[in-house]
What we know:
Residues about 335-420 have low confidence and may be disordered. The protein has 18 helices and 22 strands. It folds into three domains: about 10-200, Heat Shock Protein 90, CATH 3.30.565.10; about 220-330, Ribosomal Protein S5, domain 2, CATH 3.30.230.10; about 445-595, MutL, C-terminal domain, regulatory subdomain (Ribosomal Protein S8, Chain: A, domain 1, 2-Layer Sandwich). Helix content is about 35%, strand content about 20%. The chain has helices at about 10-20, 25-40, 65-70, 100-105, 155-160, 165-180, 205-215, 260-270, 310-330, 330-335, 370-385, 390-395, 450-465, 485-500, 525-540, 550-560, 570-580, 600-605; strands at about 45-50, 55-60, 110-115, 120-130, 130-140, 145-150, 185-190, 195-200, 220-225, 230-240, 250-255, 255-260, 285-290, 295, 305-310, 425-430, 435-440, 440-445, 470-480, 505-510, 510-520, 595-600. It binds adenosine-5'-diphosphate and magnesium ion. Adenosine-5'-diphosphate (ADP) binds near residues 36 and 81.
Amino acid sequence: MPDIIKLLPDSVANQIAAGEVIQRPASVVKELMENSVDAAGKYIRVIIKDSGSSLVQVIDDGTGMSETDCRLSFERHATSKINTAEDLFAISTKGFRGEALASIAAVAMVEIKSCLRESEIGTTVKINGSKVELQEPASCPPGTNIAVKNLFYNVPARRKFLKTPATEMRHIINEFHKIVLAHPDIRFSMHHNEKELFNLPVANMRQRIMAVFGKNMNQNLINIDTVTSLVKISGFIGKPEHARKTFGEQFFFINNRYMRHPYLHKAVMEAYDNILPPEAIPSYFIFLHADPATIDVNIHPTKTEVKFENERMIWQILHASVRESLGKFNIVPSLDFDNEGIIDIPPPGKEPAGIPRIDIDSDYNPFRDEDNYKDLKRDFERKRDSNLSGWDRLYAGLDTPESKSIIPEREYDDKTHPAASMGFEKMFQVKSKYIICSVKSGLMIIDQKRAHERILYEKFIEALQSDSVVAQKSLFPKTLELDQADLALLSEIEEEIKNCGFDVRYLGNNTISINSQPSASMNEDPVEMLEIILEEYKSTEKEPGESNREKIAACMSRAAAVPYGRTLDIAEIRELVDKLFQCANPNYTPSGKAIISIITLEELEKRLR
Ligand code: ADP
Ligand code: MG
């Protein structure tokens, strides 16, 4: 057999490498902006056309490149940033792999103009799909100007994988945020289709955050500041009451480079333990500085994941630092969302509530007759009515094993519809999250939020087919400002969400008003609802076979569903369960999560064996 192994031509190798580094227009924005920062640009301009699919251009006033460097910069592993393997352990620049430009040039049409600061004349190079088309002297201002056109023009499969323009633009803006937040000392601007999206003057950190996220951010920010020999921590964390239910304003930077760090994210979240509304995620902008020799930024090709030598210690320090700041601003003791109405904090002067007490009849025999049941039920209802606000306090005791039988089991005929088999008097809510009811086969647990999601989903689907949803008009429409990316996203789904009862108006100047909400919504905050809709819409992939309408209905239902942490009264519990079992598919949420689980009698028996 003849030899069959051959070396791939550079253009092919680069295209393969490009798959790792350049996934979408946003990756080009990131790489080019990082190069401009590394080249000590003081003013960096980003110009985008058609969400980056026709143009990503970055212009800087940095060091510029010589004629030879201009050409060499497109070779793979061509970098000016490291010389030896040791340098890998002391990286202070954004780039160092020398892969970005080669990768970009393999999958796009690139035109670069660059001029060294002290030079009279610069260079222009044109490369299409790794092929150099032109290289000649050019007159241009000092610095570098790179235009990347028609990304993936020669890789149709990749082009097909791009998401909607609004989603791609959202990714671009996310990358832009990560870089501009790390460098308030650099001026940045961004234009999309000739429209200015950002113009960020040189500023301090707090001003930069406000310039990016809006002035309202100012009152939300608390300083954090801790210096240890291992790590220096600075930046801002958000007040718990401003925390939103969606990701988006959580930033870690290590030595001024953005990083993702799920483990350290937990340190922050745990520091907020008990003071956040359910499911909320606080904003944070946290800058860590550590000796480059103690971190490894090399574990991921796009370099957003970082490994620390002393990860556990850093976790502890960060946790303490966040805790301390929250404490300093008197936030920790003043808020307590976790009592969920189970333990009432008495007004001053009254006796402390102590542990909720349940009266248990120790002589009680659950296997006695029906009359006994009726007595108990009456007794129970009396207690409940005399203390309506605290009725779930009464139920709280049902968690304890000895009181489980306070309402005795009765046989139901559940041959028919499952809902028919439930005694409503035997339902209650646990932890403002689950609804528990006794059914013939055991204990049924219903996830309240998922149940409501399912109910709303089927309702919205129907509405989208028939234009029949009842909307609740707001007397005082909420107005809010959205960034360009969210506005574009909103216009994509506006029609459908309106059909579901969520009506928005454009007031100009990036401002919209929310005039109505679906009447069945149990999320009372329309602004939060909109945030969740947009977030869900851009972050969830369509399921195979799912139509866009179905996807929007699913997003809407997630945004409008009753949140965890909401205490439901008995009438609401009944309605929820009733409606759930009228659904075509009461068992699963639109995204396939289980709504119902049953603990069988056998399992119950096993537990007490
Ligand atoms: P890396 O940033 O990992 O070194 P790149 O492919 O991004 O690799 O860039 C290759 C080289 O091109 C850089 O090391 C740098 O010397 C040069 N370069 C790229 N962009 C610029 C720029 N905007 N200004 C000056 N030099 C640049
Ligand atoms: Mg680079």
